[in-house]
Amino acid sequence: MTPTALRWIGGSLALAALLAYPYLFGIYFTNVFVTFGIFALYAVSFNLLLGFTGLLSFGHAMFFGAGGYGTALALTHFKSLPLLPALVIGVVAAVALALLLSPLMVRVSGTAFSMLHLAFAQLMYVLALKLRAVTGGEDGIGGFRIPPFRIPGLVNVDMKDPSSFYYFAAAVLGLSVFVLWFVTKTPFGSVMVGLRDNPNRVAYLGFRVPQTKAAVYLLSAGFAGVAGSVYALFQNLVSADALHVLNSFTPVTMTMIGGVGSFFGPILGAAIFGLISELTSRYTERVELVVGLILIIVIMYAPQGFMGLVNAARARARARFAPGGATELAR
Amino acid sequence: MDPTTAMYVAQGVHGLAYGMLLFLVASGLTMVFGMMGILNIAHASFFMLSAYFSYQVLAVFGSFWLALLVAPVVAAALGVLCERLLLRRVHAFGHMGELILTVGISLVILEGVKVFWGTESLPIHVPAILEGRLALGGLDYPVYRLFVIGLALVVLGVLAALLYTTRLGMVVRAAVSDSGMVNALGVNVPLVFMLVFGTGTWLAGVAGVVIAPILTVYPGLADQMGMDAFVVVVTGGLGSLWGAFLVSVILGELNAYGVQFVSQLAPVLMFLFMAIVLAFRPMGLFGERE
């Protein structure tokens, strides 16, 4: 069989598994999977900045939160708003916030970039707590209407049903991850990597560095907004916790665990992270303690994350089985 | 003096006290950044840890002065241990790794504190001599705030003397501006860095003990002070001691008067100030590099 045929078969099997999942595993694990999907997209959008463009954000939660608050506010105030426009409003809110910040953010990099994001995300958090009339303060906005997914004359699916919501979330999140993956494969994706490795040379080649940075920034913020918006719909609640600094550190941790150097690393990291918090929360309330320890261990002993370990093992195996590989390994 | 002026002056004193404490925390942060390019996210965690240590010392021995002496030293020792055992080892992987490592340390300290001391705020009582108010030039000042300002000024005076008159201080200043060159001249830069890291953590620790009676001790302490200190360091210019001092005092006053005039939006003023400064000077007020 050719590799292409194998890929098609593998893809079809994965799709079939995805479709059958709610029937095989029940409501609880369906919801676990939706949560995983949301944070996987969130981490992938974060890694677009860190892994591909070399910008470490400690405030990505503000875009996640903007998406969530945007959708929640829209559904609270517009009585007959359909589902997809509500989602789009969340994304637009996240992109608008990024657009507002971008003139400042594209001019800094390194530590200043990280710290400015930390500070602005904290500002958003404080605002969400203080502007009680708009955001509901600590309680957040909850219990808003979840509209059905409707195409007139074709379908009308109730989104309060967990398995219907699963299909909706899987479609939206899967499509988003695909779009991001596709972007990294385009020439624009190569320019992003160039920005990470040598911005001077990218400028010399004739690309406008600040504008390109801004485009990546908006893209990353927009898809973090998608994740936040789906999260708000899923929980039927968005509170200041979504903007909290710990929620900014979540994608950092996921990306570091999974592997910062690869596109799919953060998805793997989100899965491992979800598994760890699921397991530790059964024994202790202090999940963050475990998260912090894991973060330290990963940085100390596996700075390229899980994907890095996999790649190293693969390289070792290849060296062993390739002709003359043993000598190469010995060197 | 009429009551309105008296109120303004009192607020000014509050702001100055907070600004001084802020500078105690931020000075260590900015020095460490200047030498090694690391912005230590866990810096404020040691500040909080010291506050908890002082609570513990006070609970066991009952002496605030002993707490002021012991707690910052213990916190600084822990900080130095973290630097030697963790930070130094990941130095080779670049600043991203160091930054994220300090996030890990701060999470562990935050949660560890909750495990040992719980999540409620613990009150700390100051010695009788520091309680009450002092009449000065027709105005009433709380004695403790004046003590805070005085202590901070003494500590800073000693440090400035060390930094600007001794040989060691000269080496430290040189290392802040170009650690590679100092290393090439035969100075043991990692050792000097350890010293600076320890001193910075000790300064934060002193601030932690001193602020405990004002704010009480609770797990959110690191978040609150840490965020302000980061704003100071970024706005003042990473690695610039004078920038940190100036911005600390400005932020202290901004906070004090902000609470008085626009109480709801007081925290916003600080970020607004930072955004305005950075919009015109991305490196901060006195910063020379990123």
Which class best fits the helix and strand makeup of chain A?
mainly alpha
Residue fraction in strands of chain B: under 5%
N→C terminal distance of chain B: 47 Å
Shape of chain B: globular
Number of domains of chain A: 1
The topology string of helices and strands of chain B comes to HHHHEEHHHHHHH
Structure description:
The complex is a heterodimer of chains A (331) and B (290). With 331 residues, chain A is mainly alpha-helical. Chain A has one domain: ABC transporter involved in vitamin B12 uptake, BtuC (Orthogonal Bundle), CATH 1.10.3470. Chain A is 76% helix and 3% strand. Chain A contains 14 helices and 4 strands. In chain A, the strands form 2 sheets. A two-stranded antiparallel ribbon of chain A has the order 1-4. A two-stranded antiparallel ribbon of chain A has the order 2-3. In chain A, a hairpin with a 3-residue loop joins strand 2 and strand 3. In chain A, helix 1 crosses helix 6, helix 1 crosses helix 9 and helix 3 runs antiparallel to helix 9. Chain A is globular, with a radius of gyration of 21 Å. Chain B is mainly alpha-helical. The longest helix of chain B is centred in the first third of the chain and has 34 residues. The relative contact order of chain B is 0.19. The mean pLDDT of chain B is 85. In chain B, helix 2 runs antiparallel to helix 3, helix 2 packs parallel to helix 4 and helix 5 crosses helix 6. Chain B has a single domain, classed as ABC transporter involved in vitamin B12 uptake, BtuC (Orthogonal Bundle), CATH 1.10.3470. A two-stranded antiparallel sheet of chain B has the order 1-2. In chain B, strand 1 and strand 2 form a beta hairpin. Chain B contains 11 helices and 2 strands, in the order ααααββααααααα. The interface between A and B is large, with 39 and 43 residues.
